[in-house]
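Quiz preparation item.
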């Protein structure tokens, strides 16, 4: 049996369910269904509650979370048992930590009556868990990557820094977006690019939260635009092949769409479907940047070898 293929399939299922679970969680939040099941882990004292749309929106969210938990435990046991999955052991422990913390935060979200910072931490842990799953999937597939050697140059160094910063800031933007939603800061200023007629209002309270999210979006847009320009103009110096250049262009188009959806969220007063789509695009940008990181960093090894996470993962084989 091809165990790597089997576990790659299991990771794909976990990534798919976790991604959908996060979108469903956003729908629960934007449709004010977070307390339709007022108790936890049961719902109105029942394992399967009586049907009501809001109740079942929250109930299905919990049920999928339970499935994700069970599947991850099965995957975790396989990683511990099999020597050929040794490169995933550290990451699998990290994933288990995020999973357990996420379960605890899920319960506290209900028991603490949707306290904003608990809900935001719930989103943070879910995002981190999704990224860990995706990284493990990429680690399983690295044997299929070709490797070339490039001498160090300013363009490849710039591309690497830009790419890593992009990943960090997309993650931060997702968390800030969650904080905007949970503190109901999305509608404190609905004009754009100004906020209540001001370009630089006082960064206090809900207005401060929304403006920090906006400023983060400006900075992230600049980073990804630079990434796109370097890929298109200096791709040969960076070591990008044609498919990777196309992929960078796709990331840039996701960003443009995300900016447009963000403005439309303000214009149409944060409708639920646009808010969920906003998160969908953010997660797509995050995972796309992580995928690009692995695709490029495993393919291109500079003199002296890979660094950081790549060196650690290779040494654990």
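Solution:
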């Amino acid at each position: 049996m091809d165990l790597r293929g089997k576990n790659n399939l299991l990771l794909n299922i976990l990534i798919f369910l976790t991604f959908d679970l996060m979108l469903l969680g956003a729908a629960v939040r934007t449709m004010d269904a977070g307390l339709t099941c007022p108790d936890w882990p049961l719902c109105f004292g029942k394992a399967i509650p009586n049907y009501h749309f809001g109740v079942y929106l929250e109930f299905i969210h919990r049920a999928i979370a339970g499935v994700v938990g069970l599947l991850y435990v099965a995957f975790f046991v396989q990683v511990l048992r099999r020597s050929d999955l040794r490169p995933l052991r550290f990451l699998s422990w990290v994933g288990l930590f995020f999973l357990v913390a996420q379960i605890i935060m899920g319960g506290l979200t209900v028991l603490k009556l949707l306290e904003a910072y608990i809900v935001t931490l719930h989103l943070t842990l879910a995002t981190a868990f999704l990224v860990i799953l995706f990284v493990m999937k990429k680690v399983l597939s690295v044997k299929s990557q070709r490797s070339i050697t490039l001498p160090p140059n300013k363009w490849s160094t710039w591309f690497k820094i830009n790419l890593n910063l992009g990943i960090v800031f997309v993650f931060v933007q997702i968390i800030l977006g969650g904080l905007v939603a949970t503190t109901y800061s999305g509608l404190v200023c609905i004009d754009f690019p100004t906020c209540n007629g001001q370009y630089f209002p006082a960064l206090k309270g809900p207005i401060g939260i929304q403006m920090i999210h906006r400023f983060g979006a400006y900075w992230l847009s600049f980073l990804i635009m630079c990434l796109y320009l370097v890929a298109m103009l200096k791709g040969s110096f960076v070591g990008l092949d044609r498919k990777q250049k196309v992929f960078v262009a796709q990331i840039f188009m996701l960003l443009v769409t995300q900016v447009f959806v963000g403005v439309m969220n303000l214009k149409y007063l944060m409708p639920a479907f646009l808010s969920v789509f906003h998160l969908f695009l953010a997660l797509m940008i995050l995972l796309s940047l992580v995928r690009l990181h692995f695709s490029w960093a495993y393919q291109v090894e500079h003199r002296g070898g890979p660094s950081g996470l790549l060196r650690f993962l290779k040494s654990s084989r």
